[in-house]
What does this fold into?
Amino acid sequence: MRTPSEAILPLGTLGLVPFIVPGTMVLISPETDWAVRALQLYAFGIIAYLTGTWWLNPKPTETKAALIGHGLFLLAFFGLLLWPAIFFVLAALVLIAIYLVERVTDWVGQFESAYQRLRRLLTAVAVMSLVAGQIGVMGG
It folds into this structure.
């Protein structure tokens, strides 16, 4: 079982700030281009990071996680480039898919229940922020 370090809770919580602040700004005032771009780029960065951690899979012969991780990364990458108007919804769905792969399968290893609870909270807040951003850019 993989054990998270003690730094994960405060860092994970602080990592929500770049989701919450721009997501709220876009919802309140969709004309704030900096907030739209900040939320898009941060969401993409988190997706790239999470799928990249799967390369450290404790089961080196397991290819399912690598293939799904590459697919989710590419979906987010091309979504940001080709469909920026719907990227927030796409990113939210990708974050949910990443969470489900980590939670439901053993492809990326097993995690402690404390880490699983934290990941559920982080994913939920990130998804809500992305949905708020999408509502804002659609004229809410």
User: Anything to note?
Assistant: The two ends are 43 Å apart (CA to CA).
